[in-house]
Amino acid sequence: MCKECGCENHKQETPKRTRIDKSLNEINDTLAEQISEFLKKNQIFCINIMGSPGSGKTTVIEQISEFLKSDEIAVIQGDLESDIDKKRIEKRHIESYQINTHSGCHLNAHMINQALPNIKLDGKKYLVIENVGNLVCPAGVKIGQHMNVLVSSVTEGEDKPAKYPFIFMDAQMVILSKTDLSGVIEFNEINYINEIKNINPKCRIIRASLKNLKSFKETAAYIKHQRNHFFDVFHDHN
Amino acid sequence: MHELSITKDLIELIKSECNKNKITNPKNIVLELGSLTTYKKEPILYYYNILKKEQPLLHNSALIINEIQAEMQCNGCNKKSKIKTIYDIFCPCCDSTNIEIIQGRDIRLLEIQTG
Ligand SMILES: Nc1nc2c(ncn2[C@@H]2O[C@H](COP(=O)(O)OP(=O)(O)OP(=O)(O)O)[C@@H](O)[C@H]2O)c(=O)[nH]1
Ligand SMILES: [Mg+2]
Ligand SMILES: [Zn+2]
Ligand SMILES: [Zn+2]
After folding, report:
1. How many C-beta atoms surround the C-beta of residue A3 within 10 A?
2. What is the pLDDT of residue A80?
């Protein structure tokens, strides 16, 4: 007799334990790995740019493109709605593609995989992906990137590394943006940098500001350096 | 809100694993949640109990979440140690910050129990 409902025809399964041991991230991560390999084979270095809404992600892409060759860059924009950022990038004659996630709080490998056939990748050395503005959800989600960059602005406050550690943990580079406003809001850069060092000691931190365009030259140089390193191209370490 | 999509992924994975392993009445679903993921236990349980109502296969099921503490391995002295908070990610043996996180960043479906 069935224990659940008392009927005669409802067969009871014998108790058993079936070992599964599968990651919930597996489907996404497998696809991300394929994207990463595909880009690598084509000599394209893929950069995932993350940060809060309005932290200056698009500004960073615009400014570093001045120091990398614009025909060597392709950009994917991730936003809930609109193609405003795509249009900003296209003004600089850079190949750009917009993903609208609607309610989605971050990009995933599936979205990038669908976007790729729509982008001219011939001769490109960099694929720059601007993730959805968000300090929580994009953290740890693989999209095929070879490098994580976090853009974090002084106006968000110096406690952001302590409050949102996961996204700081994975970044190879943190761009502290809008440093021209540090004085106005009495932002303590030392505290901020120490907080990051506690979580992610290997991370490169660069201060950037539209009032000091040289800071984007330094940013571009570091990205170039990371690409050379990734492809094991001869480079000097200065 | 953030845990909704991972809970949906979980349900899809349970369904496909039940199908593959010919399980028709899953009871305890055991999930392993690392302390360094962006997910929390309570919201996953909350969404699971709502979403399972739409899934006849899962009506008798209960989700059990085992939280596991993250671990690091030191690149200097090779020792493994627990990570209590992510604000002190350095090796307790030799103080090195050159470490690898070896456990705690994953969320895994461990096993499905029946009967
Ligand atoms: N003062 C100052 N403002 C800046 C700087 N960089 C960016 N901004 C301003 O900050 C605002 C947001 O910059 P965006 O580059 O659009 O930021 P975003 O992160 O791409 O924004 P979303 O894509 O909407 O999340 C704009 O008004 C920029 O002009 C800076 O260095 N200094
Ligand atoms: Mg933008
Ligand atoms: Zn989210
Ligand atoms: Zn050690």
Report:
1. 8
2. 93
